[in-house]
Amino acid sequence: DKDTKGKDEL
Amino acid sequence: MNIFRLVGDLSHLLAIFVLLLKIWKSRSCAGVSGKSQILFALVFITRYLDLFTNFISVYNSLMKVIFIASTVATVYLMYIKFKATYDSNHDTFRIEFLVVPVGGLAFLVNHDFTPLEILWTFSIYLESVAILPQLFMISKTGEAETITSHYLFALGSYRALYLLNWIYRYYFEGYFDLIAVVAGCVQTILYCDFFYLYITKVMWGKKLSLPA
């Protein structure tokens, strides 16, 4: 369920 | 990026600057919990360690810098410049009772057992309870300045908007992060009592005072 784009949220 | 997250980030930015301006203009931090501000500074510092290693976008990097700088500036104003107006008698929440359990939980429940990921998880868990000293302080003083209640409304709204952002991203991007969502729900639920008072009182021009 992890987002592939890494931490893209603040 | 979607409208919920953008409005959420702007609401977060607004909250931080409303507080910073309140303290700067009134040259007083009466009614503001310095402990919550320290926790928020810790939240941003532990969350944005990838500021220099993981470039997402100009917007992302710029906001991270602004959040860290403005929160550190707020802590500076409260504990150094306007220290005389800091109400330490009412700001008595034991933040070690937050930091230690949150730190332990971040070690136990995370997506990846690496330093950066554990610090990010710690930051997410800590943010969900970082407002408690402020809410505790208001319950002790029994009231809050109107500007402080606007600050809290904007701050509480930001994570509520993030919940909508996560619903949007789940359906349109298949993005889902259980840790962020659960912590975001806890964080938003902690504001419910305040939201009720804000909407029933402050919206009608009354002062926010807790039932004694």
From TrEMBL, chain B:
<keyword id="KW-0931">ER-Golgi transport</keyword>
<dbReference type="InterPro" id="IPR000133">
    <property type="entry name" value="ER_ret_rcpt"/>
</dbReference>
<feature type="transmembrane region" description="Helical">
    <location>
        <begin position="62"/>
        <end position="80"/>
    </location>
</feature>
<keyword id="KW-1133">Transmembrane helix</keyword>
<dbReference type="GO" id="GO:0006621">
    <property type="term" value="P:protein retention in ER lumen"/>
</dbReference>
<dbReference type="GO" id="GO:0016192">
    <property type="term" value="P:vesicle-mediated transport"/>
</dbReference>
<feature type="transmembrane region" description="Helical">
    <location>
        <begin position="122"/>
        <end position="139"/>
    </location>
</feature>
<feature type="transmembrane region" description="Helical">
    <location>
        <begin position="92"/>
        <end position="110"/>
    </location>
</feature>
<keyword id="KW-0813">Transport</keyword>
<keyword id="KW-0472">Membrane</keyword>
<dbReference type="GO" id="GO:0015031">
    <property type="term" value="P:protein transport"/>
</dbReference>
<dbReference type="GO" id="GO:0005789">
    <property type="term" value="C:endoplasmic reticulum membrane"/>
</dbReference>
<dbReference type="GO" id="GO:0046923">
    <property type="term" value="F:ER retention sequence binding"/>
</dbReference>
<dbReference type="Pfam" id="PF00810">
    <property type="entry name" value="ER_lumen_recept"/>
</dbReference>
<protein>
    <recommendedName>
        <fullName>ER lumen protein-retaining receptor</fullName>
    </recommendedName>
</protein>
<keyword id="KW-0812">Transmembrane</keyword>
<keyword id="KW-0653">Protein transport</keyword>
<feature type="transmembrane region" description="Helical">
    <location>
        <begin position="178"/>
        <end position="199"/>
    </location>
</feature>
<keyword id="KW-0256">Endoplasmic reticulum</keyword>
<comment type="similarity">
    <text>Belongs to the ERD2 family.</text>
</comment>
<keyword id="KW-0675">Receptor</keyword>
